[in-house]
Amino acid sequence: MATSVKTSNPVTANPVTVGVALGDRAYHIVIGRDVLPSLGHRIAKLRPGARVAIVTDRTVAQHWLAQTEAALAEAGIASSRIVVGEGEASKSYGVLQDVCEGLIAAKIERNDLVVALGGGVIGDLAGFAASIVRRGVDFVQVPTSLLAQVDSSVGGKTGINSPHGKNLVGAFHQPVLVVADTAVLDTLSPRQFRAGYAEVAKYGVLGDLDFFDWLDANHTEIFAGGAAREQAIAMSCRAKAAIVARDERETGDRALLNLGHTFGHALEAATGFSDRLFHGEGVAVGMVLAAEFSARLNMIPAAEAARVQRHLASVGLPTRLQDIAGFQQEGLGDADTLLTLMGQDKKVKRGKLTFILLEAIGKAVIVNDVDPMKVRDFLQEKLSG
User: Fold this and answer.
1) Has domain 190-384 been given CATH number 3.30.70.3040?
2) If residue 121 lies in a helix (H) or strand (E), which one and from where to where?
3) Residues near 250 by Cβ (< 8 Å), separated by ≥ 6?
4) 202 is in an annotated binding site
5) 20 to 30 Å CA-CA from 1: which of 21, 229, 300, 340?
6) Cα gap 100→117, rounded to integer Å
7) How far apart are alpha carbons 249 and 323 in whole angstroms?
8) 38 labelled ligand-binding
9) Is 261 known as a binding-site position?
10) Active site amino acids
11) For residues 102 and 170, is the Cβ–Cβ distance under 8 A?
């Protein structure tokens, strides 16, 4: 594993670089500790003369906005800033309008760049705004959460939420560069880091048993911030980049990346897209439900599903519906409510449910036209504890 070193020219640092092979829209993911200072030089080399608008949220701005602006200024790049509120509430029509109007007011042109400085919410929001302002402006992802570094910053999915469900309004709009500084993860709360780890584990569960075994053995070092952390991020990015290169617009294999998301998105909607359930936490519960439902359909042994649950629980992630904050006090709706929310999933085809299920740990498959009554009965059993 290459290690980043500080030099007088930030571009000469030696991070890990992962390529996303999309022909004339190919780009690099730059991963390493203290690579944020190289952002301006990388942008100047990629897009000489471009101006930049930084979209971020209030919390990230307190920690990293000044450093990002300084990195751009050092390379002679003029920048403006648009700061929004934190959390899923910002993935809304109203905030999207504010960001679009901010970009237009800043006179960002089609040959300029938008920089998404933040977690998955900011990447989705800023990327979608970039895709529609002036019919398309290029953007750079600077992910500041583990979840964003290993998942949402890569692959070009952008969008906002609808009252009907998560990410139902959006566009595929690939970034031109991703700069993932692992040092920024030091400012995450333990809960935020755990939520991001769910997406790391997902890559092992869906397609790489060896990686899952490695995570089982090394998750303590990943959480402690050792060399295993950068290795886990790089391995996750390589896994996603390979799938995106094969299936950019999710007409086939890319749907496998939604393991845990059909259940998870419904749970996020049921909890009002609030901090009762972070996205990665919903994915963790959703992965366990997907594994247990696979066992219910006799696709995998129950022991395999139990191993997935045990691994996620061992790092402190919620794995049961009853683990979700407020479940005991408020309940989480009934099985019919959750099934209705699943009906808004983007993988639904002509009203029929599609699930990502398991044939083994490390081998996920797309299962079409799942009997909704089997899903309902399964959920009712899980809701009853």
Assistant:
1) no
2) helix 120-132
3) none
4) no
5) 21
6) 16
7) 34
8) no
9) yes
10) 135, 157, 199, 240, 250, 254, 258, 261, 265, 279
11) no
> How many other CB atoms are found less than 10 A from the CB of residue 224?
9
- Does 120 carry a binding-site annotation? yes
pLDDT interval class at 7 (50, 70, 90)? very low
pLDDT 10s digits, 201-257: 999 999 999 999 999 999 999 999 888 999 999 999 999 999 999 999 988 899 999
279 is in an annotated binding site: yes
Tell which residue, 194, 162, 350, 127, has the closest CA to residue 268. 162
CA angle 279, 280, 281 (to 5 degrees): 90
The three-class DSSP label of residue 254 is helix
Q: What distance in Å separates the CA atoms of residue 368 and residue 347, rounded to the nearest whole number? A: 9
The Cα-based distances of 113 to 3, 17, 123, 350, 378 in angstroms read: 29, 21, 14, 38, 47
Query: Which residue in the block uniquely carries the two structure tokens 């964003």?
Result: 148
173 marked as part of a ligand binding site:
no
pTM for this entry: 0.90
Q: Check whether 86 is labelled as a binding-site residue.
A: yes
> CATH number for the 16-187 domain, one of 3.90.550.10, 3.40.50.620, 3.40.50.1970, 3.30.870.10?
3.40.50.1970
Structure tokens at 246: 């094969």
DSSP state of 285: H
Task: Return d(Cα 133, Cα 90) in angstroms, integer.
Answer: 18
- Report how far residue 277's alpha carbon sits from residue 326's, in angstroms, rounded to the nearest whole number: 10
Chain-centre distance of CA 127, in angstroms?
Answer: 13
The pLDDT value given to residue 349:
66
In contact, 324 and 269? CB cutoff 8 Å: no
Q: Of 138-142, 158-162, 345-349, 359-363, give the lowest mean pLDDT range.
A: 345-349
Q: Across-strand partners of 18?
A: 29
- Strands, E assignment, 48-112: 52-57, 79-84
**20: three-class secondary structure by DSSP:** strand
Contacts of 15 (CB under 8 A, 6+ apart): 2, 4, 30, 31, 32, 35
Residue 328's pLDDT is 58
What ranges do the domains of the chain cover? 16-187, 190-384
Flag whether 138 is marked binding.
no
Determine the length of the chain: 385
